Amino acid sequence: MKNCFDRTPHTMKDWLLLAAGVAAVFAAADWLPGVLRGAGAFLGLLAPFGWGLLLAYVLDIPTRFFAKKLFGGRRGGAMAVSYALFFGALALLAALVVPQLVQSVTTFAGRLGAYEETIRGLLVWVQNTFGIDTATAEQLVQMVGTALQNWFGGLSHSAARAAADFVSGAAGAAGNAVVALAASIYLLSGKEALLRAARACLHAALPPRAAGSVLEICRLANKIFSGYIGGQLVDALLVGGETFVLMSIFGLEYAPLLAVLVGVTNIVPVLGPFLGAVPGLIILLLELPWKAAEFAIIIFVVQQVDGNFIAPRILGGATGLPGLGVLLAIVVGGAWFGIPGMVLGVPTLAVLAALLKQAVGAGLTARGLDENGEPRRNLPGGPQEN
């Protein structure tokens, strides 16, 4: 094969093969968009099964816990408790978020004029106090206010069409949700049988040493991912609960909505708390500045308590990554895959870092060196202790 690519064509057969190869490359390039569209459509059909796999993986964490602590190792009852908690959490979130969301949107739409006047007054104060020309900012405020009013007005005028689109989309989403739920139940209940079948296929396809290496990598990845995802979910629940309690104590508006938003975004490490706090700060700042200040203090206190006391005990050393590694995983994962990449980038990089650490350790051991590059003692070729 190497000689075929290195030598210059001489015979008619060589030129025909070269022409056929070039034609095949151009044909593949021409067919590639269609192949990618077909692959995308096929993956779209499999999306409910992917969500079912994700749900089964997440619910396997509490299922293993309940099976060990409550049901003597039996998974049937543990699965029932896990699904009951899952649907209970969904119902609670719906009861908290949906009414608050409707009320928040309605209130926000009704106060657009007041918000615009508040911002205009602030711009006038800035211009009179500091002598800064704010004409451009005033035009921008007017444009944004007009666009928002038109958008909310369009929502009210096209309510029938929006309702029809919502019903159609909800029907499709409900069908996909049913498929995902059924797939998750099947995967979770048949976990042991599916794992045995996967191990059997792996041993049949690969040599024993390679199969053992693949299984070891899978165990490492499962340990890191399950510890990280489970810890992040529990941490997000606690952060959202703390935010809701403190906002209720201080009597701040939109407490359920903003608490859920802060808790959900807290799943994204490092940047999540800020992503969840910014919308709340903007909304409350338009109401009264001191409310926004109270909300900022609440977020600061919650994040300090979480970062210094709660998260280290829940997550522990789930990833083993330094702060720079976590930030790198968030930036790269977010750039490539959006929010899911920001969430899953950290455990993915942790798995790669653990594998790299093992490879480096094996290489140093094979050369009789320690982590500083010095010869190990009591090894052939290294200095011997007396």
Give the topology.
Elements: H1 2-6, H2 12-69, H3 75-110, H4 112-130, H5 135-157, H6 159-189, H7 191-205, H8 208-250, H9 255-265, H10 272-287, H11 289-315, H12 323-366
Helix pairs in contact: 2-3, 2-6, 4-5, 7-8, 8-9, 8-11, 8-12, 9-10, 10-11
Please describe what this structure looks like.
- There is one protein chain.
- The longest helix has 58 residues, at 12-69.
- The model is unreliable at 155-160 and 379-386 (pLDDT under 50).
- Helix 7 runs antiparallel to helix 8, helix 8 packs antiparallel against helix 11 (289-315) and helix 9 (255-265) runs antiparallel to helix 10 (272-287).
- With 386 residues, the chain is mainly α.
- The two termini are 56 Å apart.
- 17% of the residues are buried.
- The protein is built from twelve helices and no strands.
- One of its GO terms (cellular component) is plasma membrane.
- Residues 368-377 have a biased composition (Basic and acidic residues).
- It is a multi-pass membrane protein.
- Its main location: membrane.
